[in-house]
Amino acid sequence: MGIRIPFFAVSERAVSERRHGVAQVPPYQALKEAPKEIRQAATVALVCSSVSRAIGILTSTIIIATLPTWVPGLLALQPIPILLVVLTVGAAIVGGKGSRIRERIASGDYEKARSASLSAAILGFIIAGVVPGVLYFYLYMRVGNVMVKRRPDDPQTIYLLPHPSEGVFLGRYIGWAAAYLLVLFIGYTQLPTGLRGISDWLSPVLGVHFNTLIVAVYLIFTNPLTYPPVLSLWVTAGLLGGIIAGGKVGRGFMVGLAVFLSTLGAMGLAALSIFRGVTSGGFPNIPPPPPGFSLIAAATGPVASDLLPLFLQASSPTDPAFIQSVALTLARNAGLIFAIVTISGRAASLIWLGGIDIAKYVFVLIHGKPGLKENRNIVDRPVLKTAVILLMLLPIFAIPHISTTSPPFQAPIPGPYEQRLDVALSMLGAPNMSFQLTNLDLSSKGLVQDNNYAGANLAAFIVNNNDSQAFGNGQQSQMLQIISQPALVTLYSGDPKTTAAESAAVEAQFSQALGVPFTTIFSLPMGGQGTATIYAPNPELSNYDALTKLMALLPSQSFSSLINPANIQNAKYFAAIGVVPITINGVKITGFSFDMNVQFPRQYYKGGAHQLDLKTLLGFQNNIVGDPAANASLVSMSFQPGTILYSPLFPNPIYNNATSTYYLNVTSSSQPDFVANFNYPFAPDVVIQKTSTPASGSVGTTHIVVVTIQNLDNVTVTSLNAADAQTSSNYAQNLQLSPSGPQAMQAAILTPGNSATLSYTVTTVSSGVYVLSPATVNFLWTAPNGTKITYTISTDLTTITSLAGPLTQFTRTFTDFQPYSYLLLIPLLLTPVVETYRLFKRRARRKKEKEMQSFYAAPPPPPQQNLPKAPDTGAGSNPNNPPPA
Q: What's the pTM value of the predicted model, to 2 decimals?
């Protein structure tokens, strides 16, 4: 480290006097050369200042962390909020005094240093939390000890404080850029599932900057105390920026502040872009969420998990108390982020300076220079000691969080119930299984149908794995379609205050029975239907694990034993247990029920005799055997009307020709499986696929969409018509189609082994997930008996994923905001110029410091003697002869 020389203390007159030996000015020495008691007093002053500032940072962080309750408490003049304000202000005041006292000790002004120490001690005891008062009182005694040991004839030496290292050239600029890019990269690539789902859903209609808005909201308004990834991200950003900046501790603070403000500015620019787009083109129509969107993940993810409880407790969204709570919560989260990044930036600067001290100390030990070893040991370095303490504390924060989960409660088999297994085979040969267990007695599992279920139209734990058909073959409500993660859903009619307590009691029952804790994420009025409440388990609970827990509640000998969750985990299925809206033969079931629907892959059969059993068709792990504990165990299998079925086991099973339904009663039957010979013309093996190449790409990628119809059978189909509506109009502004409009293709015949295609290109303008419309194909097939059958096949929904990273967002922001975006270049271009100017200025100052240091280190010139002046002899005079008298 260099030496900081106060030039104001050296006047030109003093320099001139020293050169001519007339007077002596106080000598200047480094603080390390000072007597031990002076060095100790200066170190104590530094400790007093650091501790006071640390207390101020701690109390201000506590204020930020408790902001939603601190502000109302302060307005109500509660003692604790007022005390926090007093401590913060007091710590800031006494912290500043320590730095000035240290300078006075170094300059030899001990009287003022002692007086200031006493006043700081008094303030520390009164308004700074006692600890600074004790330290400053100790400093008061240390300064008094220096004054006692000083003698009147001691030289008036001015000791120079260490000049901190200035760090790397352009360190603040490079540190800001590195930390900011790190934050953006992690924000775009590691966005949580829920927020990514919202971005993928709405970015295609609101524009590419909506992705930036979501990323910035995640980075700024996530509570780091409850979401460790954000905490670790901002700590890493602060440490990275502070270490690169190096030098003074304030540099780490400035880097952290710049990164935080840059992210906040990116959010503001994104919001401005979206606002401009909405006001100029009108509010766009919001499409349904894309496949895989999870309402549970969005509601339990960052930001939403802090705001939704406030919404649930509010009487109205326009309630001023609710608005205040939301504003204070967001301010708290942003304030915590700011505190974390700036504190870690300061810590990184200390670590950087401590690393330099360690390197110098090791260098001294290796080279064995006695002078340096005596005067510069590790104990005399406050920066190094601080860095060592920080490194010792780091393992404390690395302790992993240990969570415990309770296993699901197992209980004996419940009482009598009824079970039905319905299988419907469409004309395409796609089995659709609907499985119901009604009037279950689940009291032994902890589920008791008490008065809390009286007003419940729905109170069930559901697992929806992308199935659009639920509760038998009925259509799902839109609310259930977007719940793609396990959830407990209740729907009560009646007074919301009363039903809220009943719903909470039901939630407690399911939590105990399933062995999983739930969190309330939604409680919304559903018009005349009542109030719907959604409870979410741990987001890490997969559909497979949830289905396994759910089926563990069912009777062990029921039809549920036929289904292996592992065999259907990749299929589309829906399962629910609880009070579910099931109606059988016009009778509404009000007891506990289990309902499950599974869509199995399509089967390809043509006309002729076939042997069919459900174990093979649906992949059951056991034969169909009724449970003796069940009141009824019925199996039904529905075919296309007109199907001829041959059943050798009449009257059980029995085939109803009027309804084309095959029935099997296994309540008291030993029939091992459902077996029959049938003559049924399933559709020929003609498949239609709609693919996008590539399936995902960055914004601006051109995707080739191809619709392919293949005849994989050994028969010919005719009158083939393919149609593709491309996509809905919701994506019109951010999706370029070529050619645009509905596409069609016809073929008179499609022989075995041949295929037909149609194609077009899609170019994405914004990020997100674009949902393309399903393509449809119609064709005729003539059965062996001459009957012509028309078949219609549709593809599944095809999606195109458009990605946007930091580089794309930078370029799009610059392009979309011209000419205002040129203002963004000012800090990028101006900062290196300013840093270069400061570099030359520092070098010039250090050059003068070295000159002054060497000047005072050199001995003064000897005084000139007053010799008698030689007489003027004039020209031609003889110096040996005296002048005449």
A: 0.74
